[in-house]
Amino acid sequence: MTSFNRSTSRRLRKLTQIPSVWEGDRRPLSSSQTQHLDSETKGECILWVDGTQGIVRGMDVVPPESGPEAIVRTLMRAMENPHSPAKAARPQRIVVRDREIQFYLRGVLQDLDIAIDYSPELPLIDELFRGFSEILDSQVPELPPQYAQALREKALAMWQIAPWELLEEQQILSIEINKWDVGTLYASVMGMLGMEYGVLLYRAEESLKQFRATILREDESQGHLEEAFLKQDCLFLTFEHADESEDTEDEEFEDLAELPLSEIQPTFGNIHPLEGLRSVLYDEEALIVYVALEGLCRFLRDHRRQLGGDSFPCASRRYRISLPVTSDESTKSVSITVSTMPQLATELEEMAGYDIEEDDEIESHIDPIFRSLRDDLIPEDSFLSLGVVSWEMLEYLHQGVKYYKAGEIKPAGDGLPVILIQTSRPKAKTVIENIEKAGGLKAICFNPGSDPLGGDRYDLGLLQTQNGELFLFGEFLDDDPIHVEARKKWNQRCKHTKGYCGLIIARGLTGSARGNPQLRDMMALFEARSLSPQDLGIGTLQLMPQLQFE
Fold it and tell me: How far apart are the C-alpha atoms of 312 and 304, rounded to whole Å?
């Protein structure tokens, strides 16, 4: 058994001994509302109170696995540094209700002239813990217990569907419910930029418009933006990294979409001009969100191909949603209608001032050959590889990712030769959008290049878009044996496919997916033609300062 140092014992004996009886105990901090929490969040409370004066002298919350030393540490603080208004002192007698604690304290405190007694009841501490329990029981949980599991499961189903891969924030879906005093909700999906992921369910179309109009004003201060945020009228579902203990302040931005499902934590809440932000859903609100999420999940699955197109389609479907089995509602299902709102999307786009005509005048003064040679399409830190996609996998890609067809490809050989570009999700999204703005991908080329100063020769990988521009995607040393072998296979496969090849844009630059993206990591497939240097007709490119190949 650990005992005090002699110097500590002498210091404690110098404290004034007062004719008081102190009660001490250690009990779990739990209640009927907190039983579902992890043991890390429960803890145990250690209390030392002066039963004579009726005051708390010391209190600590410790992990459940803490040893008996914890109760002694709290006792020492209760003697030397008690809570106000108590003064430093040691008692004549201590009463505990645990035999083990009694015998432990007798051994540790034997030099302090303090009697250690046992009592099955501690009136003052019992009363305090009853008060703690009432407070815990009166706290409103973030989700109604009877709906919590169903809501979390529905939220994770929404995460796996990934609506932000299909919808931009201004592409609104209406959800007509007509129950629980709610007519129609207006769903705005966040996440296409790879920053914040979630679904906002506005109770009024006007609230949505007002908020977007406010945040688009360039002269709005941060204070006004916060006020506008709190004036929204919506329910929300957002997603966070489940491990909040990691300090990510100084780390590179991490896209949640690249994390496994086990590390995703859904968060629910409500925003109202008169309530502000509330991270709690009450019974009816929980049912509203559950029904809305289930309707959205079904609609997105049914219309995924339409929603993944270039335009925001006009679509609507009616669903009957079964309520959770734990619901107290007399009706067990609700009929809802989910619809796209292309007219509202157009209005919101006009509000944002979207304009696709950029830099036309500048480009008209640049020589056509040299204007097309650019190196700003593919991010510098991307993972690049030459490979092949089997014909079976190609069918899955046609159905599961953004697919841009180049022609009728007849399966021949071991598959379609492809260039894989893997980067972070936000950067991948930007690459796809830039290729789309250029009219799509026309061809993939390898062209000779040289460094007159260093004497090195290169094989330059180039992407040609439909508007005639050329983008550098890779520089390979001409005598690199790995690249030489990869180029041989590339040429052979292109012969089998009659010149057809592809470009795959994938996310997952870090972690286990790097270099080995799964189907869910692939965001777009651009089919194109393979061009030889002779077809391209620009000759050997030389490394010059203004070209900045490196």
Answer: 11
